[in-house]
Amino acid sequence: MLKITNLVEAEARVLLKALKHGHLGCSFHDQPYVVPMHYAFDGENIYFFTTEGMKTEYLSANPKVCLQVEQVSDDRHWRSVIVIGEAEQLTGAEEIGRAAELILKNNASLTPAINQTIIDNKERNGAAAVYHIRPTSITGRQTIRHS
Amino acid sequence: MIEIEEMGEKEMKRVLERVGYGHLGVVRDNRPYVVPIHYNYDEPHIYFYTTEGMKTEYISQNPEVCLQVEEVNDSKNWRSVIAWGKAERLTEEAEIEKAMKFILERNPTLTPALNLMWIDTWGRALVKAVYRIDPHIISGRMTLPEGETRGAPSDNQNKSTIKN
């Protein structure tokens, strides 16, 4: 029998820190939108960047977001974390730099692409945006081994 | 270079058929919520079930959903498909049976666990609702293998490129 139990918040935070790829849900005029996303979690805030106009448009209209991340071994062994919060676009050069560094540290293979995107963004003024999410809730669920 | 390209309709449908697992976005009072789900794609419909009260509450208030499905090999090699539509709750016993059969067939490793649930009366009670989505938009993006480009730049108006 497949049993599912809640993760305590401390466990959910550990998992959120260990992973680097999630699914960001946002809402625009009551229409949901879900996109895959690379992120970093520093224990307090979640950082992500986007190059896509649609997301920045959605997020400026409604900053409420839901980030779902998961670690799936197979259909019967998985853990999933859901973060609720508001996304805020970072504007200061220093905070953008710090956030970019965290995202790159967590997603080493993306480094060249993101570096260039952020450099391009400075040159082109607005093609990419860096956000942070301040979580208002972090919850999680996991399967437990059947006895 | 990581090049990202819009996917063609056939390719997107193949991904939906192949994967059977995705991330469902729902919205209530402008608050989004994302949950992982198993589904079955029986073109043009997507079927899924839920064992949870929260999703049924959201969907009964606002049936607009967004299903995101991905195949990720690594951060430079992935495909992602997004389908939008209204989730319609199935009410006829025959429809529910057929949809659950489809979903269970699609997810063979889930089958032992769910079959146990599904054959038990109490297990059936755990499955709160079965839904069908008739997507009105499907959109997909994929990375191209490194060093590969498709067609001349002028043929690729939809392509967004992240320079490396």
Strands, helices and their partners?
The complex is a heterodimer of chains A (147) and B (164).
Chain A: E1 3-7, H1 9-18, E2 21-28, E3 31-41, E4 46-50, H2 53-61, E5 64-74, E6 77-89, H3 93-106, H4 111-124, E7 129-144
Antiparallel strand pairs in A: 1-7, 2-3, 2-5, 3-4, 4-7, 5-6, 6-7
Chain B: E1 2-6, H1 9-19, E2 21-28, E3 31-42, E4 45-50, H2 53-61, E5 64-74, E6 77-89, H3 93-106, H4 111-119, H5 121-126, E7 129-133, E8 137-144, E9 160-162
Antiparallel strand pairs in B: 1-8, 1-9, 2-3, 2-5, 3-4, 4-7, 5-6, 6-7, 6-8
Physical arrangement of strands within the biggest beta sheet of chain B:
2-3-4-7-6-5
Largest interface: A-B, 40 and 41 residues
> How far apart are the first and last residues' alpha carbons of chain B, in Å?
5 Å
What's the multimeric state?
heterodimer
Please state the structural category of chain A. Answer: alpha+beta
Helical residues, percent of chain B:
25-40%
β-sheet strand percentage of chain B:
35-45%
The biggest beta sheet of chain A is recorded as: 6 strands, antiparallel, barrel
C-alpha Rg of chain B (nearest Å): 18 Å
Largest sheet of chain B: 6 strands, antiparallel, barrel
Q: In percent, how helical is the residue content of chain A?
A: 25-40%
| Secondary-structure element string of chain A | EHEEEHEEHHE
User: Strand pairing plus helix content of chain B: what structural class?
Assistant: alpha+beta
Order of helices and strands of chain B: EHEEEHEEHHHEEE
